[in-house]
Amino acid sequence: MSGPFDAPIAVLGAGNWGTVLAHLAAQSGHEVRLWSRDAAQTHEINTTRRNSRAIASLEIDPRVRGESDLGAAVDGAAMVVVVIPAQAFREVARKLGDVLDPRQIVLHATKGLELRSHRRMSEVLEEETCARQVGVLSGPNIAAEIAEGLPAGTVVTSRFPHVVKAGKQVFTSGRFMVFGASDVVGVELCGALKNVVAIAAGIASGMHIGENAMALLVTRGLAEITALASAMGARPGTLAGLAGAGDLMVTCRSQHSRNHRVGEALAKGETLERAVARLGMVAEGVTTSIAARELAIEHGIECPVLDSVHRILHEGVAPTDALEALLRMRAGRDVAWA
Predict the structure, then answer these.
(1) Where in the sequence of the chain do the CATH 3.40.50.720 domains occur?
(2) Helix or strand or coil: residue 66?
(3) Interatomic CA distance for residues 48 and 56, integer angstroms
(4) Do the bridges between strand 79-82 and strand 152-158 make them parallel or antiparallel, or are there none, so unpaired?
(5) To 5 degrees, how large is the angle CA 134–CA 79–CA 232?
(6) How many Å apart are CA 1 and CA 13, to the nearest integer?
(7) Which strands make up the sheet holding 64-67, listed edge to edge?
(8) CATH annotation of 185-327
(9) β pairing state of 134-138 and 152-158
(10) Stretch 105-118: mean pLDDT
(11) What does each C-alpha distance from 217 to 22, 103, 114, 202, 286 come to in angstroms?
(12) Distance (Å, whole) CA 38 – CA 15
């Protein structure tokens, strides 16, 4: 292998998706440092080739080395890939700012928005670090399936074509297709907002409302994401791609989807606290629902599906009451351009 990717790849965050991305990069021939702040997790990765807390079934490629020192993980890396939950992202980005070299390419693969500030993760990176060669990796990527070697695709997007090219080089394999794009705003907003609709889909699934109603719910959710994301500067065409409709499709239907599982649990009468605790992982849609509602109000966009999820999660409205309220709404135009 020639060029800058003779140098290692650093992946920050040893959750299920971070671990799988590290494994994919290693399978493509790269030396990878997988950072976790948990020394015990790092030790397990290095001694057993397993990460039992995140994705126990995966035998991690031997070219992945666990690292618990952030500076050591990032030092000399050609690319740094940040896979940290949205509400902890700024804390890690601030520490990353102390060790990052501006010549390093930085991708993130986090699907969420920061509470209160509503910042996208690329904006957090640019605020807290010297990184300017920034990109996003997002798509219909159920980590457990990719770990099993099942085929999948994703999108790498950046304002800089060389960053997209680098992302494709690092992650493309025979079973993992990497497409390029340049709409950073659209890809990030799709990745964040679809999680809220996925909670609604999980609730609908748990209530057994039928496939017709599920199609109605998800497509109306997509229309709301399109309207809100477009008002915030996204290109509407992005919503039809892998990072938009593709990611929404899998997140709303897969039993592996954390947000879908939270929704199903709520429909069966569990409290939000119990549903999240039993999940044992972050469901980004829970906090993103707050940001989504605030952004919809700020931009004057009616988003009844997103708003209903917020009411269920944070205002104590019963799922059955929220569904009835949605069904009583007047039906307007199907799509804005029809």
Answers:
(1) 4-182
(2) strand
(3) 11
(4) unpaired
(5) 20
(6) 26
(7) 64-67, 32-35, 9-12, 79-82, 105-108, 134-138, 152-158, 176-181
(8) 1.10.1040.10
(9) antiparallel
(10) 97
(11) 35, 44, 26, 11, 18
(12) 11
Q: Which amino acid is at 27?
A: Q
* pLDDT digits 0-9 by tens, 51-84: 999 999 999 999 999 999 999 999 999 999 999 9
Nearest to 225 by CA among 252, 248, 250: 248
Architecture per CATH, 4-182: 3-Layer(aba) Sandwich (3.40)
Q: Which residues are catalytic?
A: 194
pLDDT, tens digit, for every residue of 9-48?
999 999 999 999 999 999 999 999 999 999 999 999 999 9
Q: What is the DSSP letter of 211?
A: H
86-96 and 284-299 helices cross at what angle (nearest 10)? 90
Residue range(s) of every CATH 1.10.1040.10 domain in the chain? 185-327
pLDDT at position 5: 65
Of 296, 334, 304, whose CA–CA distance to 322 is shortest?
304
Whether 115 contacts 99, CB under 8 Å: no
Handedness of CA 313, 314, 319, 323 (dihedral sign): negative
Please give the DSSP secondary-structure letter assigned to residue 335: S
* Distance (Å, whole) CA 20 – CA 46: 15
Report strand pairing: 105-108 vs 64-67.
unpaired
CA distance linking residue 323 with residue 64, whole number of Å: 46
Q: What is the pTM of this model?
A: 0.94
